[in-house]
Structure formats: C-alpha cells, structure tokens
Design a protein that fits this description.
The longest helix is centred in the first third of the chain and has 81 residues, at 2-82. This protein has 444 residues and is α+β, with helices and mostly antiparallel strands. It is 20% helix and 42% strand. The chain has helices at 2-82, 202-205, 337-340; strands spanning 97-110, 116-130, 135-144, 155-165, 172-179, 212-223, 226-233, 262-269, 282-293, 308-320, 323-335, 347-358, 373-388, 400-413, 416-427, 435-443. It folds into two domains: 1-84; 96-443, Porin, CATH 2.40.160. A 16-stranded antiparallel beta barrel has the order 1-2-3-4-5-6-7-8-9-10-11-12-13-14-15-16. The protein contains three helices and 16 strands.
C-alpha cells in the first residue's frame, strides 16, 4: 500500500509538471501561426507591388515603343520627301559645284619708307563645276589689299580660270588661264602651305607670284612617280622689266597679246612613289622652263620690244620625320635688254633654301588643339635682278639682295595658321632695313 501511494505521488507530480509544458506548447504554436500569417501577408504585398511595377514598366515600354514608331514614321516621311531633293541626286547641277578659297591678313613693321601697316593682303574664292566626269571647270577670283580703286594698288582679277578635259592618266588637256608652272610658290601658294608671313622675296622678283598665263596645254602622269605639264601661252611684255623688280612688271593680267607666244613646262619626279621608305620620308624633284618673245602687250597693243627670254628653274621638297626642307633656283636670260632700257639686265639669278622643324609635342594635341601643330623655320634668299648687265649699262647695286627670315607658324588646324617672323635684309646698295611680320592665313 505504501508503495502504491509512493508511485501515486510520483505520477501526480509528473502530471502536474507536464500540464504547464503543454500549455506553453499550445501558446508557442499559436505564435508560430501568427508569424506565418504575417509572413504570407508580407509576401502577398511584395508580389502585388512587383505586379504593379511590371505593369507600369510595360506601360512605359508601350509608350516608348509608340513614340519610337511615331518618330520613325516622321523620319520616313522626311526621307521620302527628301528623295526628290536635288541635294541627294548625284546628277543634279547642285552637286556639280565645288566651293573653296583662301586668304591672309598681315601686320608688317618695317624699317625704311614702307613703314608699319595692316594689310588684308588677299582673299580668293574658288568655284568649280563638273560638266561631266571628264570635263571640269576651275576658277579662282582674287581681291588684293581690300580695295580696288584708281588710287590704290588693289586688284580684282581671275587668278585662274580654265577647263580640264580628262582623257587618261598620261594625257589630259587644259584650256584657259593657268598658273605658269615655274618654281614652288607660284603653283602652291595657299598660306597654310608655306612658312613665313610673306612669300619668299625670290618669288616676288625672280619668279613673280602669282604669275598667270593664258593658253592651252597638256598634263598628266607618265608613271606614278613622274608628272608633267606643258603649255603654249601668251608671252610677257618686255617693256615692263626694270632694275629692281626684274620681270615682274612684264606679266599681262588682262587681255594678253598672242603676238609672240611662249612655251612653258615642268616635270616632277617622286623617287619614293613606288616604294616605302622609313621616317615618313617624302621627296619631290622638279624642273621647269619658260621661253618666249617679249613683244606682247595688253589688248594686243604690242610695245615694239625686239627681244626674248629664257628661264630655267629647279626645285625640291623633302620631308623626313619632323623636318621639312625646300629650295628653288632660277636663271633668266633676256635678249634685247639694252633696247628695253629701264635698267633691265641681260641675266637675272636667284635662289633660296628653307628648313622647318615641327616642334609641337604630341601630348599637347588634345581637345580643341587635337589637330594643332607648330613649326620653327629659317630661310635664306639670295636674288639679283642685276646679275649681268648689257655692256655700257650701269648696274644698280640695290638689285643684288639677300635676306634671312626666321620665324614660327602655329597651326590651329591644318588649314588655319598664325605666323610670325623677323627678316634680316641686306643689299649691295642702300640698306633696305629689317622687318617684323605677323600674319593669319586660311584655306577651305
């Protein structure tokens, strides 16, 4: 009995201990259900939010697609409308025109009588037209010194105006007013293509630039490395020759006489055209000539000069790495100089040599100056318009001149350049005085 009571007490204690645990388990089960319900509610809310977001995104995509469709439809209508525009028709007369030009403005500070001045030296407009793929028209109209009047030395003229008939690489025909193919600058004188504010003095009195001639000729490439030009043109007016400006005054810029025409030609050889060479080398060697009578005047009014002239010239251009070199020489023989008078010489001779160095660092070619460049250069001119005189005619020592030109050209772009230079000038006669020059040149 005592044992049974003992086990009864143990059982009662155990049941008493177990009753709170069950209550706690039921309470914990209730909390778990509430947590799960809350989690489910939160998941539902998140799903609803995602559904709305997807719906809004879909609506935005639909709106964007509609806008894109409307834009494409509008562009399609514009393209269709432009299809009838002459701008898109390669055969239209509009697309057969070519426009271009070049110009330069100078500030010159000189010792001597010339004084200091600002000069819009020239502005040139190029107009071209393609009559067909083998007949092409070219023209350059120039105004010099900003004003043309009886009191000024300004000019308004056609510097070039001619037709090219392109027959083949080795043989083509050119008719009209052309650039006399002597030297370098007379053929290539756009301001970004040469160093120095002013053109070399050699190219003012020995080969006077710009020198245009009216006539007909042929040109072409005999091989990839050999090019030529040859023309029969109106000759020079010998009565315009003198002691200091040489043959410059003999050019006829209006209606050239054909009384005694001239022959002029040049040959250019490119040694590296058929092979690759290192260090960015490029070389051109040129030779040119001019020969003709001197009894020619404006409007066919011949001056009665009994004489003729022969000119022989050689030139070169060479580039290697950052260095550029060029040089020209010319010899002129004038028969009849004594009869011409004006101090005209029987022989005229001159030359120049120039070197340039591209010093602008590649690291500075960024942003607005991505295409910039800068060149320091030096040039020596030696020219004598009194090289050999007719017997008994006194030589003017002022005609024997030389000059050093040192300066810099800064290219904002390849076709827009600012220039500055200083010229040390000397002669066998009176001191011509030095000069400091600033300039801005462009080509388009």
């Amino acid at each position: 009995m005592r044992a049974m009571r003992k086990w009864g007490v143990v059982l009662a204690v155990f049941l008493a201990a177990a009753m709170p645990s069950r209550a706690m388990a039921e309470e914990e089960a209730g909390d778990s259900r509430d947590t799960r319900i809350e989690e489910l509610e939160r998941a539902v809310r998140e799903l609803v939010e995602q559904v709305w977001a997807l719906k809004e995104e879909h609506e935005a995509e639909k709106a964007a697609a509609k806008e894109e469709y409307e834009t494409l439809t509008h562009l399609s209508a514009q393209v269709e409308e432009m299809g009838t525009s002459p701008l898109l028709d390669s055969e239209s007369w509009v697309n057969k025109f070519t426009l271009g030009g070049y110009g330069e403005a100078h500030a010159n500070f000189e010792e001597g009588p010339s004084g200091d001045q600002f000069d819009i030296h020239r502005a040139v407009l190029y107009l071209g037209y393609d009559f067909s793929d083998w007949i092409k028209f070219h023209s350059e109209t120039e105004i010099e010194h900003a004003l043309v009047s009886s009191e000024s030395d300004g000019e308004l003229l056609f510097e070039q105006i001619y037709l090219d008939f392109l027959l083949s690489d080795p043989l083509n025909v050119r008719v009209g007013r052309v650039l006399t193919p002597l030297g370098i600058i007379n053929k290539k004188h756009e301001p970004p293509t040469f160093y120095g504010v002013e053109r070399p003095s050699f190219d003012r009195v020995i080969i006077p630039t710009t020198w245009s001639s009216d006539g007909v000729g042929i040109f072409g490439s005999l091989t990839p490395s050999l090019k030529y030009e040859a023309y029969v043109v109106g000759g020079l007016d010998g009565s315009g020759f003198n002691d200091l400006n040489g043959i410059r005054g003999g050019r006829i810029e209006e209606r050239a006489s054909l009384h005694e025409p001239a022959f002029t030609a040049r040959l250019d050889y490119y040694p590296f055209a058929l092979r690759e060479v290192g260090y960015g080398q490029a070389l051109r060697l040129g030779a040119s000539t001019y020969a003709g009578g001197l009894d020619n005047g404006n409007e066919g009014d011949d001056p009665g000069v009994d004489g003729d002239i022969q000119i022989y010239s050689g030139d070169f251009e060479y580039t290697i790495s950052r260095f550029d070199f060029r040089g020209v020489t010319a010899f002129e023989n004038i028969d009849g100089a004594r009869e011409i008078g004006n101090g005209a010489a029987e022989e005229i001779f001159g030359w120049y040599l120039e070197g340039g160095y591209h010093f602008w660092p590649e690291a500075w070619k960024k942003g607005k100056l991505a295409k910039s460049d800068a060149v320091a250069f030096v040039r020596y001119d030696d020219f004598d318009t009194q090289y050999d005189m007719p017997s008994g005619v006194e030589r003017n020592p002022d005609g024997d001149r030389n000059e050093w030109t040192v300066g810099m050209s800064f290219y904002f772009l390849p076709n827009l350049v600012f220039k500055a230079d200083y010229q040390f000038r000397d002669s066998e006669g009176d001191d011509p005085g030095d000069a400091f020059n600033l300039g801005l040149g462009w080509q388009f």
